[in-house]
Amino acid sequence: MMQDKPKFTPGPWELEETEDGHIIRMGKAIENHSEFPSHLEIDYDHGCLFDGDEGDVFNEVEIRQAKEAYANANLISAAPDMYEALQRALTFITNGIENGYIQMPDLDSGDSALETPNIIKQALTKAQGGGST
Fold first, then answer.
1. Whole-number Å distance between alpha carbons of 52 and 4
2. Which of 15, 74, 90, 108 is least enclosed by beta carbons within 10 angstroms?
3. How many helices (H) and strands (E) does the chain have?
4. What strand order describes the sheet that includes 21-26?
5. pTM of the model
């Protein structure tokens, strides 16, 4: 099981919607927006938010891209929480197997549950900058 300290800024991370996109703040930048270096903020400028005002004309592609950018920003800001949840899930699964509370399917069963611990380990490794899945 992985016990390496993550190389990224620990959570919580905060997502703020701006006129032109989103800002994701991390660590101390959450409390003091302008006092910390830019490495604690991600300015995710997609420049095509639609606020419903007359004169705002965006084509369908721009609107779709803005919605996708917003979804991406939400995913990015949730990353530290998901990382911690995966660590806890891996510990739970590992302990459950070792202590006999979780019975893994037979190796030849083809059950996708067999892959779950390795998929979690690969995701955690990727989040730490160690390879891709």
1. 47
2. 108
3. 2, 3
4. 13-17, 21-26, 41-45
5. 0.68
